[in-house]
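**Paired protein data**
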Amino acid sequence: MARTRLLKKSTQKKLARTWGYILIPVIFWGWYTHYLGYGAIAILSAIATLFFLFQARVPCGALNRDGKTHCIHNGKGLLGGCNQVVAHKWYNAKMLVHRSTWGRFVSNAFRKFYGAAAFLAAMATVLSALISAGALVVATFAYLDPRAPK
């Protein structure tokens, strides 16, 4: 008897490339309903942030050797570049080191729609992680305060 798969190979590949985008509605649902709690929201937000920084499909945007044109290949994550040329591998992460190149980094991210989506989603998940971690700390200290009403 043949073994059946839950998902087709093509669906598995698409899901492997976009699973971080699926976490965003879950995070928003957690904020809206408060059913998950601040700890779970912080963890989900951090995982989604890591996806957008290191795995999401974004345009590479590295300068080519002529110094005028940009690389047209897709990179892995906002911090990584493409694997076509060794110099492009961490080009975007190197641009974040110098403050003078931050504008070029943002313009490279907004070069294509999926790059802009990854950039905005990364900013939203970073903000969500910071707020939920702060709320978790405040809630923990409020719970430990003996004067607080129970």
Remarks:
- The helical segments are 9-33, 38-54, 91-95, 102-109, 113-144.
- The chain has a mean pLDDT of 87.
- Residues 113-144 form the longest helix (32 residues).
